[in-house]
Amino acid sequence: MLTKQTEVELSNEQIEEIISWRRYLHQHPELSFREYKTSAFLYETLLTFPNLEVTRPTETSVLAVLKGAHPGKTIGFRADMDALPIQEETNLPFASQNDGVMHACGHDGHTAILLGVAKALSSQQEKIHGEIRFLFQHAEEQLPGGAREMVAAGVTEGLDYVFGLHLSSLTPLGVLSITSGATTSNSDMFHITVKGKGGHSSQPENTIDPVVTSAQIITSLQTVVSRITSPKEELVVSVTTLKAGDAVNVIPEEVKIGASVRSFSQDVRKRAVEAIEQIVKGVSEANGCQYELDYTYGYDSVINEPEATALAFQAIRRKLGETAAVEGEAIMGGEDFSAFSNAVPGCFVFVGACSLDNETPAPHHHPKFLIDEAALADGANMFLAIAEDLVLK
Ligand code: NI
């Protein structure tokens, strides 16, 4: 039997403080790998809380470790902190003061939530059985991502579980959505340069036409999804950029093609890469063209681990109500939380942040992106609930 559980209730002042931190961060957004002021603010603020060991695993990330008075499990809570190169159009009184940079994905909220959780738990050291690591991660928005740098710096060593969240501007307030298994996708891209021999459009016999070759490549790439993987497997291959010649009477020397590839399983991803290489090579050679294929592996899909997922469901339902946690669907978006959850069992939760009266919410990465700040308390309570279940006694 567990001993009687300790509950940590956020006071109104604590919730107000989280909101004020979020607004400060929203006003001062910074781009990926350049979160100097943001991380300095976090570092300085965390040092004012009791019982934390605060360090800088990388140049712009911050780690706060709360060692409990008793032995037990070690758990990690992660928040990302970077903003996007977008000009804000929300007209909020606390809109971005940095021209062309905006917190348009809600990472300001994630950071403020975790700061609030760190403060609330830092005074509970006597009741903590185990250790809590607060992982303030830089650079989620830009490859290769900050998460893998933090993992390389050792922040996941000895962790039993890791948890993270993402505010969602399209999910209703009060709904916390958890997907068992794959929850975000492998997010890759590739660029092809098809090289032929340019010449006059009236004398194709003296050229090697990279335009016709590229057309065949693009058409053949459609078979990667339709013929090479099973209809039951999930895969997207979208050719999205195409740059050929500049004049209608010139067959160009080369054509550039860009595409994105999304999948959930590592096996499907591997077969897709092999098929893409085979098609590009085969069609180019059949037409006498040379080619360069540059395939970029993006973030791995986030796979929610069954035990961590069950723990998150249970904790959220206990603290926020039976209907608060719902089974969600995987999204074809990328998220580098996977670097943490590949290292240790993890669960990533989407926290509804769309005001209930907002019928036309802006999506993430949009100049009018908004969150309902009531979601900040939900996010903080999610982390607190997990801490209560796993390390507070
Ligand atoms: Ni994001």
Can you offer a commentary on this structure?
With 393 residues, the protein is of the alpha/beta class. The chain has two domains: 12-184 and 302-390, Aminopeptidase (3-Layer(aba) Sandwich), CATH 3.40.630.10; 189-299, Alpha-Beta Plaits (2-Layer Sandwich), CATH 3.30.70.360. It contains nine helices and 16 strands. The chain has helices at residues 12-27, 36-47, 107-122, 146-152, 210-228, 266-286, 306-320, 338-343, 374-390, and strands at 52-55, 62-67, 70-80, 129-137, 161-172, 176-178, 181-182, 186-195, 199-200, 235-243, 250-251, 254-263, 290-296, 303-304, 325-327, 346-354. It has an eight-stranded mixed sheet with strand order 1-2-4-3-5-16-6-15, sandwiched between helices. Strands 10-12-8-13 form a four-stranded antiparallel sheet, covered by helices on one side. The mean pLDDT is 97. Residues 105, 107, 140, 166 line the site of nickel (II) ion (NI).
Q: Please report the first level of CATH classification, the CATH class of the largest domain.
A: Alpha Beta
Largest sheet: 8 strands, mixed
Helix content: 25-40%
Identify every distinct bound molecule in the structure, by name, code or SMILES: nickel (II) ion
| Known CATH architecture of the largest domain | 3-Layer(aba) Sandwich
The count of domains is 2
Mean pLDDT: 97
The percent range for strand residues is: 25-35%
Number of strands: 16
Give unreliable regions as ranges.
none
Structural class: alpha/beta
Full CATH superfamily name of the largest domain: Zn peptidases
The coarse overall form would be elongated
What is the CATH topology of the largest domain? Aminopeptidase
Spatial gap, N to C terminus: 12 Å
Supply Rg.
24 Å
Given the structure, what is the number of helices?
Answer: 9
The helix-strand sequence is HHEEEHEHEEEEEHEEEHEEHEHEH
